[in-house]
Design a protein that fits this description.
This protein is α+β, with helices and mostly antiparallel strands and 443 residues long. The chain has one domain. It has a 5-stranded antiparallel beta sheet with strand order 1-2-5-4-3, with no helix packed on it. Strand 3 and strand 4 form a beta hairpin. The longest helix has 54 residues. It is globular and about 60 Å long. Pfam families: FA_desaturase.
């Protein structure tokens, strides 16, 4: 049988020459030859169910054991964390947060001012998004065909700012007027044809169950059993979690927000109102665009920026919570503080992206408390760096970071966190091997 001795860092495989189910360790000794000796002490006298005999009290036996070293977690060593950071494209991988630390402990270190709602700053966010989106539409209208991709990239990023405004409204961190928040949130989501209330309900559960297996409503790893059970869909799954992953939020949008069966009875009425608003926008807005600009105009002015928005929606989501060293855990093993502080990533992007997207990339403080408005996230992150800096995962957006996520973080594994598709089904993983070959490795 085997038993663990925590202080020694070894696993001891004890001899089965004598029963040891009624003993306890009192001493660990080494012979100096690599062989370890465990001193076992019998527990109080008990009667065996199999044999009518007594085990004598205070009887001491020496049991010979072989010491087998157990490798420590790679996150426990500063040198290992540094090597993993370079390998995965991170600036820093945080050391494990102690189990005793709670969300309350972390939240109490944040200055009270970061929770303050400022209607003036909220209005500034709206003006930035409206102005940048209008400029983007003007660029699309005037740009020659060869500059259209740049215009679409700008406009798709600008309209992502609308999503962030609606996101703050859903968290009740945008305005002091809560009814106004719901109106602004609904309107901000309309150009994205995203139903506000269904998204709000799902997103609240994501915050409550971040990186919890089965429960997190954002992206889950692929389940090996399900992957094996649908051979006809394997290639689609591989493409979805590989080269098409920067647009996987489209599938999430469609599958998770329009089915009334996915919501609780007390949520249904608000869900129906949001769905009605989205369908009304589609029924009125799309025909107007087509009437004025034609089908090509609908593609130019709406579809391409919408695809640009989903690129950022997918990229932000996977970068925030997906890395080979960040685990998904079952509910009985899950720790809120570890998931929110240790399991969330801060990532720096080019400044124009951060401005247009209202600092949604400053994501760790948002998971410590969703009540922090987007315009206060940077101040909150500075506080976290001062008080909890060694536990933070931080990166700058780079090719190696994206390559790591797209080519490694696929199938759930309890021990390794993720196993890549090309290890599970190498004969079907051509999209992943292709990405490994063509994606740059710059960090």
């Amino acid at each position: 049988m085997a038993c663990s001795v925590a202080d020694s860092g070894f696993l001891f495989l004890a001899s089965k020459k004598r029963p040891i189910h009624s003993t306890r360790i009192t001493q660990v000794a080494s012979s100096g030859t690599g062989t370890y000796f465990l001193k076992w002490e019998s527990l109080p006298q008990i009667r065996s169910k199999q044999k009518s005999c007594l085990i004598s009290l205070r009887k001491t036996n020496v049991v010979r054991a072989v010491a087998v070293p157990i490798a420590p977690s790679p996150l426990d060593s500063a040198e290992d964390r540094k090597q993993l950071s370079e390998m995965y494209g991170f600036r820093q991988i945080g050391e494990p947060l102690p189990h005793k630390v709670t969300m309350k402990d972390i939240t109490e270190t944040l200055p009270k001012k970061v929770f303050e709602i400022d209607n003036g700053k909220a209005l500034k966010s709206v003006l930035i998004s409206v102005t940048s989106y209008t400029l983007g539409l003007f660029m699309i209208a005037k740009a020659p065909w060869y500059l259209l991709p740049l215009a679409w990239a700008w406009t798709g990023t600008a309209v992502t700012g609308f999503f962030v405004i609606g996101h703050d409204c859903a968290h009740k961190s945008f305005s002091k007027n809560k009814f106004l928040e719901d109106i602004i949130g609904t309107l901000a989501f309309l150009p994205l044809i995203y139903p506000y209330e269904p998204w709000r309900f799902k997103h609240d559960r994501h915050h409550a169950k971040t990186n919890m297996l089965h429960e997190d409503t954002a992206w889950q790893p692929v389940w090996k059993e399900e992957f094996d059970s649908v051979p006809a869909l394997r290639k689609a799954i591989i493409f979805g979690y590989g080269p098409f992953r920067p647009w996987m939020s489209i599938a999430h949008w469609w599958l998770c927000h329009f089915n009334l069966k996915k919501f609780r009875p007390n949520e249904i009425n608000r869900v129906k109102i949001s769905l009605g608003c989205v369908f009304a926008f589609m029924a009125i807005g799309w025909p107007l665009i087509i009437w004025k600009t034609g089908i090509i105009g609908w593609i130019k002015f709406w579809l391409m920026p919408w695809l640009g928005y989903h690129f950022w929606m997918s990229t932000f989501t996977m970068v925030h919570h997906t890395a080979p060293h960040i685990p998904f855990k079952n509910s009985d093993e899950w720790n809120a503080a570890q998931a929110q502080l240790n399991g969330t990533v801060h990532c720096d992007y080019p400044s124009w992206i951060e401005v247009l997207c209202h600092d949604i990339n400053v994501h760790i403080p948002h998971h410590i408390s969703p009540r922090i408005p987007s315009y206060n996230l940077r101040a909150a992150h500075q506080s976290l760096q001062q008080n909890w800096g060694k536990y933070l995962n931080e990166a700058s957006w780079n090719w190696r970071l994206m390559k790591t996520i797209l080519t490694i973080c696929h199938v759930y594994d309890k021990e390794q966190n993720y196993v890549a598709f090309d290890e599970v089904v190498p004969e079907e993983a051509q999209p992943i091997t292709f990405l490994k070959k063509v994606m740059p490795d710059y960090a």
